[in-house]
Amino acid sequence: MEIDLNKIPNKKYFSTSEVSKIVGIKGHTLRYWEKEFENLFEVKKTSNKRIFKKKDIINLLKIKNLLKTEGMTIKGAKIKIKNFKIDNKTSIDILPILKKILKEL
Fold first, then answer.
1. What residues form DSSP beta bridges with 50?
2. What is the predicted pLDDT for the residue at 53?
3. E-assigned strands of the chain?
4. pTM value?
5. Which pLDDT value is given to residue 7?
6. For residue 10, what are the β-bridge partners?
7. Fewer CB within 10 Å, N- or C-terminus of the chain?
8. Structural domain boundaries of the chain?
9. Cα separations in angstroms, 63 against 14, 46, 49, 87, 94
10. Cα dihedral angle (28, 23, 92, 53), rounded to 10 degrees?
11. Contact in structure between 95 and 68 (CB atoms under 8 Å)
12. Which residues of the chain, if any, have pLDDT below 50?
């Protein structure tokens, strides 16, 4: 899955509702993924509101692809992400690599 960066507005910070709309998930799912994949996000909290950056949205889209399109479990997605050393300092496109691995299986 290629992520179309043009569909993500060019701004520095995003609210929870904006992120939910862009990624196509509900707020409770966003909060759950944020907890489960906490090392991937640099969420700021101001006045009890969470603020996301563009790379957080990209990582959420990658997680969504792993879970919804590829059919992985949370545990499986965590392992894949950990194996490719994706954290809050790096953001690489792992999907082509994952597809190649899946084809080889």
1. 45
2. 93
3. 14-15, 44-46, 49-52
4. 0.73
5. 82
6. none
7. C
8. 11-104
9. 18, 25, 22, 13, 10
10. -80
11. no
12. 86-91
Residue 66 dihedral angles phi and psi, to the nearest 5°: -60, -45
**Both structure tokens of 23:** 């990624």
Q: What is the pLDDT of residue 87?
A: 45
Contact 98, 80 (CB under 8 A): yes
Nearest to 95 by CA among 57, 65, 56: 65
Sequence letter at residue 42: E
Give the number of residues written for the chain.
105
pLDDT of residue 86: 46
Let me know if domain 11-104 sits in CATH 2.40.30.110. no
Looking at the chain, the number of H-run helices and the number of E-run strands are: 5, 3
What is the spatial distance between Cα 40 and Cα 35, in angstroms, rounded to a whole number? Answer: 10
How many beta carbons lie within 10 A of that of residue 30, not counting itself?
A: 20
